[in-house]
Automatic annotation (TrEMBL):
<protein>
    <recommendedName>
        <fullName>DUF2335 domain-containing protein</fullName>
    </recommendedName>
</protein>
<keyword id="KW-0472">Membrane</keyword>
<feature type="transmembrane region" description="Helical">
    <location>
        <begin position="142"/>
        <end position="165"/>
    </location>
</feature>
<keyword id="KW-0812">Transmembrane</keyword>
<feature type="transmembrane region" description="Helical">
    <location>
        <begin position="110"/>
        <end position="130"/>
    </location>
</feature>
<keyword id="KW-1133">Transmembrane helix</keyword>
Amino acid sequence: MSSERTDPITALAQLQAEAAALQGGPPEAESAVPGQVSIVFDDLPLPPRRDAEVPPPDPALLREQLQADLLREQLAQQQIETLNQRNRSRFLHEEQNHIREYRRKYSRRVFWVTCAWLMFTALLIVGTGFKNAAFHLSDTVLVATLGSALAGVIGMFLVILNWLYPRSDKPDGK
């Protein structure tokens, strides 16, 4: 190979001729296919160009993109919290309506059971007051009956009403 500068096509042709001579084949210049040198160059990938490389990102632009992503994430989180609050509020409202229905229903039932209980106790007292030979209660039985009736009525009233209207232990009324 000569030391003087030649164009790349000529240099490639010379290299191919030398390689063919070493392998024992015909030199490339004598090849029957014209333009074979240009076919070789067409198949080679082009090296990446320096000016086509991506420049390093601008730190200010990266900071703005990070802030925008953070704001989007915060907005999405606020939307989720808002939806959760709405669902929780809707659930609490439905639960309060359900409790109100129970209060109406059981308040009436407790009232009528209490009335019936007191009427029964009043009938016992009136029946004992007539001093009828068929129905007579001693004083201790009468006191025990009145005491148990009063304790039962008050106990039933308190248990059911505490269940229907629970006390709030929190100072803000929730």
